[in-house]
Queue: 4 jobs
Job 1
Amino acid sequence: MDAIERPRDLPRQAIHLAQAAGLVAVMTVFGVLPVDWASKLGGFLGRTFGPRLGLSRRALANIGRALPDNDEAQNRRILRGMWDNLGRAVAEYPHLGWICAAESGRVEIVNESGVTDLLNDGKPGIVFGGHFSNWEVGPATLHRLLGESLVSVYREANNPWVDRLIRHWRRSRRAVAKGAEGGRDLLRHLNRGGHLGILVDQKLNDGISVPFFGRDAMTAPALARLGLRFGCPLVPVQSERLRDARFRMTVLPRLEIEDTGDTSADVLAAMTRVNAMLESWIRARPEQWLWLHKRWAN
C-alpha cells in the first residue's frame, strides 16, 4: 500500500520542498542585509504587494467588523500598515538573535521585573500576548530573560520541511507544539514550577464563546483554566513596534482570576477580561495587529 501511495505524494512533497527552498532563499537575502535595511525592504514589499492578495478581503472584513465607525480610507490605511508590519516581521526573522540581545538596545522593556520576578516566587507562571508588531520578538526576549524556566507554545507549520526549518531557527528556545502531546508536556512543566509563554488572540473552533469587539468569538480557554488549576500569575505583555526594527515590550500588572468554585463562569470572566485587554491594544495600534486570522465565526 505504501508503494502505491508514495507516488501520489510526490507532487505534494515537491511543492513542500520548493516552498522550503524558497523560504531559505528569502531568509538568506534578508539575513545578509543590515537589520534596518532588511526591515525597510520587508515593509516595502509587504505594503506594495500584500493589499493586492485575496487574503486582504478577509482582513478588511475583520477591520470593518471590529471598527465599524471607520470609513473605507481609514480601513485601507490600516490594511496597508498591517502588510508593512507583516513584511517587516518576516524580513527581521534572520536578525531576531541580534534584535533581542540585551546589548543591541533594540527592545525597550517597561517593568522588566514584572517578568523576572516570576523566577523568585517558587510558583509556575504564564506570560501571554498576541500577534502584535513582530510577535517573535516578545517570545525571544522572554526566553532570554527567563532562560530554561520558560516553555513557549507554537503551531506546527502545515509544510513539514518548513516546520523543521522554523524549529531549527528557534533551537535556542524551549517550545512545544499545540496538541495533546504538547499539552501533557506543558502540564508537567508547570507542575515542576516552570513558566509558559503563549499567544492568545487566535480563533479556536472548540474553544468557548467570548465577546471580542462586541461579537462572540471562539476563544481558547487554556490560559484561564491553567491559571485556575495551578493558582499561578497571568502576566500580560504588550508588544509595540516603535520604528523600523525597534520595539517596546510593556509588562502589565498581573491578571488575577477569581475562583468562585464555578470553573466555567470563572474561565469565561477571565477570558472576557483578556479579550477586552487585546481590544485596547488593537485600538491603540490597529496596523500592528495581524488581521488575517479567521477570528469570528462568520
Job 2
Amino acid sequence: MAEGGVTIPRRFRLLGPALVVAVSAACAGDDSGEVQSLVQWDTLGSGVVFVQCERLPEEPRWTVDADLRLGSADGGEAAFAAIRGIEVDGRGRLLVLDHQASEVRAFDADGHFLGLVAPSGEGPREIGLANGIRVDAEGALWIHDYGKQRFTRLLPDGEVETYPFFVPDSLFLWEGGITVDGRVWSLSTHSDALPGVPEPGVHQGERRVYYKSLDPQGGLLDSILIGRAPFHSIVASRGVMRVPFSATLLHALDPAGFIWTAASDEYRLIKLTTSGDTVLVVSAGCEAPLVTRAEREVAIEEAARFMERAGSVDVDWDDVLPDWKPVVEQMVVDDRGRLWVVRATDDEPVLDVFDATGRFLGTVVPAFDFVPNFPPVVRDERLYVLQVDSLDVPYVVGAPVPAMW
C-alpha cells in the first residue's frame, strides 16, 4: 500500500522518471509586462522537483458565456429533480443522470431530448439509485448504481455488463472513474475513531482517504492511500453536516493513470501515479477569500434548517465557523488530460487550467453562476456545470471552452 504526498509534502517517492515541468513564464509577470521569475525551486534527492509560484499570472484570462441551459421547472424531459452526473458520450450526446427519477437521459448539443439511455427498473440495463456516470476509453457508459450495489456498463453496440460493488458507496456523488487500462476506481475513507455513533455536538478529526481499484474480470486489485482528510462536523441525533467552509481533501482521477490531490485550504496540486508515487507538485500563492458576514448568516441559517430535521445541537458559531474559505473548491481532469481547478475568490469562483505536465494555461471566468462543489465537466471543448435556481431546481449550463493550445 503506497503513501500519497499530501500530508508529507517534503517526503516523496518516485517510480521511474520524474514527470515534472516548471515554466518560469507560467508563474511570472508584473504590471509592466516584463517577465520576471517568481519560482522557488526545491530539488529533492529522488529527483522530483517541487515548484512554487509566488502567484498565478493574471493572463491569459477568458470569460465564457453560456450557450445552453438545460432544465425547466415546468415539466418535461428537461425537468430534473436531482442531478448526480453529467457526461458526453462518443456520439456527442449530453448525458444527464437524474438521481430521483433513477434514469439517464440523452440530449443533443442544442438540448433536444433524444431518449432514455438507462431507465429506472429491475432489468439489466435499468438502474435503481445511481450517483455517478462515466464514459470509458471504449465509449462505454458506466453507471454507479448503489441502489443495486453494482456497476452497469452500457457498451456502444448495445451490450450490457454488470459488476458487483467492491467498495460500498452511497455518497452524494461517485468520486471515482475508469483508467485506460480498464481498472475501475472508487473512493474509500477510514478513521481511527472509536466505533459507534458519536454524541451530538461539534466533532473534529481526520480520515485516511484511499483510491481502490477493481479489475471487472478479476476483482479487487489495489488500494492507494492518497492522503488524510480533516473533518469538522456537526453531529445531530438524526444526521451529520459538515461545518461550512471547513477544509477537506480534494482529488481527481486522470484516466491516463494518475491521481491529482490537494488540501482545499492551500493551493498545492500534487500528482500521483496509480501506484501512489508522487511525480509532480505545483504550488502557487493564492489567497483564500474571507467569509463575509452575509455568507456567515446564510451558513448559520442552513445549519438551523438542518437541525430542524436532524435534531438540535449547541454550537458556538464564533468559535466553529472559519474566518477564511478554502481556496480550492474542486478539481477535475478533462478529456484532453488538462486539470481544471475551481478556485474561490472574493467575487465568484474561477477555473484555473493546467496541462498534464503542470504548465499553467490560463483562468476561465464563467459569466454565470454554478455550484462550486459539484465537479464541472469538460468534454469536446465544452464546459458543463450544475446550476440551481432560487427554488432549488437544478439545471445543466453549457459553454464553449476557449482555445488553449
Job 3
Amino acid sequence: MALTDSSPANKNGILARLGDRLASTRRALGRGLDALLAPGRSADPAALEEIETTLLQADVGVDATQRILRQAEAAARTGSDLRTSLRQALLDIIRPCERPFSVPVQEKPFVVLVVGVNGAGKTTTLGKLTRRLQDEGKKVMLAAADTFRAAAVEQLKVWGSRNHVPVIAQETGADAAAVAHDAMQAAAARAMDVLLIDTAGRLHTQSGLMDELKKVKRIVQRIDPGAPHEVLLVLDASIGQNALAQLEHFHAAVNVTGLILTKLDGTARGGVAFALAMKFGIPFRYIGVGEGIDDLRVFNAEEFVDALLPEGL
C-alpha cells in the first residue's frame, strides 16, 4: 500500500532523512543532552547548567536559551519530565515561524525579491525555488538583477535553461534597477504567475550596495505599488550568530518578509534558527539541507525540532 504524507511510516521516514541532513547540529546537541535527558530526569541545577552550555554552543543564542531554561525550571516545579519540557520549549519558540510560502491567485505577477550576501547560496536557492513553483503549476520568470558579480548573470541563466523558464538580463555592470524594471514589464506582458528577482550578494555593511537594493525595491513599487509581495533573505546557517546582524540590516533596508536558512547539512550551528525566531519572529519559508534540487524543504517546526534532538526525545 502506498504511503501518504500523513501516514506514520512516511513521517518517520521524512524525520529520519532530515535528521541525517542535520547531523552536525544534532551531534552538537546530542553530546550534551543524551545523558541529561534520560527518562524521568529532573531539572536540577547541574542539569540546567549543562543544558545551557549545550544550547549556547549550538548557537541557540542567549535570549532563546534563557527562555528555554525558565520553561524547564517551571516544568520541574510541577514534576514534569525534563525531556518533554525541553522539546516543548524549543517548539514554543520556533513554531510561530512556521508559515509556508504561498502565491495568492489574485497577484499576477507575484513579485519576490531575493536578497542575501555572497556565499549564502542565494542564486542556487533561487533556482531550486523555481523548480518548486513549477511543480505547483506556476509560470515563473527570473530577473538577473545581480549585475555586480561577474558570474551571477550567467549562473542565473543556467538555472533558467535548466528549468526552462525565461530570464531577463543585461550585461554585467548594468543598472540593477533597470533590469528589475524590464522584468516587471515582461512578467506582466507574458502573464507570469511569479517573478523572482535575484539581487547582488552584498555585505550588510556595504552601504552603497544596500542603497542600490533599496533603489531596486523603489523601481518595482513604481510599477506595482503592492510589490515586492515577498522579500526573501537567504541566510547561511554556518555563520551562526552573525546571521542576526545580517537579518537586522536587510530588514531595515527592505523589510524582509521570509527567511530561507541554507547549508544546515554542513554545520553544527543550526541552533541559530531559534535565535532568529526569538529575536525577529520572521517566517522560515524554507530550509536548505543539501545540494540536490529537492533539498530545499518547506520548514516544519515539529520535524525540525525532532530532527535536531537526540533520538527518543
Job 4
Amino acid sequence: MGAFAQDPYFSQYTSSPMLINPCFAGYRYGNCDIRLTSNYRNQWATITTPYVTQMVSVDVRIGQDENNDERNWFGLGGYVYNQTAGDGNLQNFKASFLPVYNLGLNKENTTFLSGGINIGFVNRSVDFNKLVFEDQWNGSGFSGSPSTDPLSTESFFYLDMSAGMIFTFKIKDELRCHIGTSMDHINMPKETFYDFGNNRKEQVMNFHAGVFGEVERNLFLNLETWYHSQVGSPEYNEIIFGADLSYALNDDNVSLYSGLWYRWNRVIIPVVGLDVSGWRMLFSYDASVSGLQPAGSFEISLSKTFNCKPCVFCDPYNDVRKYQKKPKRRKR
C-alpha cells in the first residue's frame, strides 16, 4: 500500500522563495541588505480539518559595498516553518540554515551565478490518541481499546538536505531575467512512524524562471513559472505560473500590488497587496478548479526590508519596488 503527499508550500511562492531554491537567500538585485518575512496559509478549511502552515524567514546579503560594486558576495538565510494537519494533529516542523555564494561573471556585474545549500532539521509528530484504526472497529463503532498497529513513536527527527543554482542576467536596466534549478531531499531521509519498513523522502527536482521589467514609468511587471517533479516518478509533478503588477505612487514610498497565478488543473490564485516604506502585505486565495470545488485556501504574507539604499530598479524578491525619480537637468 502506498500514499503520496506534498511538502509544505505557499501559493505566494515569490514571498517564500527560499523554499523553492536556497540561492534566493540574499539574492543580488535589490537595494536592501536584510529581509524579514512571515507567511501564513490555511488550506481546505471548508471540507476538512484545515492544513495550517506558518513560516518565519530572514536573509541577508554580505560582502557588497553601498554601490553594489563587489563582484562576489555571500548570502545567508534561515527559516522556521510548522505545518499542522488533520484530526491527529500531524505536525511537520523544520528549521533551516542556507549559505549561498554568488559569483559575478563579467566586469559590469550584470551576469552572475549563485550556488547554495539548505541544511534542514525536521521533526514529525502525531497524537495517536486522537486517531482511530481499522482494528478498533467492533462492527457498530470504534472501541476505546488500543490499536495493535505496529506504531513505534509519536515523534522523530531527521536531517534534510537541498541544493540549488541560479543564473541571472540583466539585458538592460529595465529588464532582468533569471533561471534556476534545485533538488530537495538529496539525502533521501527516512520518514516513518512505524517500527518496520524503510519509507524515505523521495528527491524532488525544481525548475524556475522569471522576467522582471518596467512596462512604463512607475509600473513594473514580474512573470514567473515554477515546475517541480518527483525524481523517478514524473507523473507526480506540478506547475504554477503567473504575473504580478506593481505600481509605485508619486511619493516613492507606496506601491500597489496585484497578480494572477494558475496552478495547472488545480487552482486559480488572485493576489492583492500594498507596500508602504518597505512593509509589504499580500493576500491571496486559491480558488479550486479541480474536483474539490468547495475547497479553497487563503494566504497572508508580511515582509519588511532593512538597510536599504536608493535604487532606480529593484527586484521583486527584495520586496521594495520603488521608482526613484532621476533629478531634472537645469537649463543653461
